[in-house]
Every structure is written in C-alpha cells, then in structure tokens.
TrEMBL record:
Coiled coil region boundaries: none
Family: Belongs to the CPA3 antiporters (TC 2.A.63) subunit G family.
Record-annotated membrane-spanning stretches: 14-35, 47-66, 72-90
GO function term, MF aspect, one: sodium:proton antiporter activity
Name the UniProt record assigns to this protein: Monovalent cation/H(+) antiporter subunit G
InterPro entries per the UniProt record, alphabetical: PhaG_MnhG_YufB
Keyword DNA damage: no
Gene responsible for this protein: mnhG
Organism encoding this protein: Microbacterium allomyrinae
Keywords: Membrane, Transmembrane, Transmembrane helix
Lineage: Bacteria, Bacillati, Actinomycetota, Actinomycetes, Micrococcales
Amino acid sequence: MTEAATPLESALDVAALILILIGALLCLTAAIGLLRFRDVPSRLHAATKPQVLGLILVCLAIALSLRSWPVVAFLVPVVLIQLATAPLSAHMVGRQAYRNGTIDENGLYVDELAESHRTPPAAGG
C-alpha cells in the first residue's frame, strides 16, 4: 500500500516540474541561438548564459525531486565545474576567433587587444 503524498511533497514535485521545464527551454534557446546567430560573440553568449542557467535549474529540479543529500552532494560539483569552465572556454574561443580575424573588429566598442594584434606574440616588442 502506498502512502498519500503530503501537500509539501506535492508542492516540491510541482516546483521541480516547473524548474525542469524552464531549464529545458533555456537549454533549447541556447541551442537555437548557436544555430541562428551569425557572429562569434553572439554565439558565445548563447552558448554560455542560458545554457548554464538551464543546467542550474535542471540540477535544482533533480535535487528537489529526489530529496536526497547524496544527490545534492553529486550535483553541487557538477554545477561548480560548469560555472568554472563555461566562461573559460568562451574566453578561449573568443580569443582564438579574434586572432583568426573572424570577429568583426568594426563592431567592437573597445578593442583592448588591438596592440597585441599588431605585434606577433613571439616578436618581442
């Protein structure tokens, strides 16, 4: 015989369902943005901001749904690693795109790398 769910458990399940839905929609918009945007900075924005927030919401929904401390202990490093690696990878991709010349330099408001772009890194000056 199964026990009836308490109102608190039902509310947590509904909250988990809503968080999963919002997180999945954010991840979907990130994927659509990667396909639809034309330039590298816009694609980097689409790849990092909504995707990371979507992952956080999905992990929060999993934690609310399963209500287990070992699950939370597993999800916290997943979120922390994602928060650490997404900006770093976006920075590296953006820097390489700048070096390759695939970024529209006329569209930049401030070009802090203009001086390093003129002088090759190993030229010594």
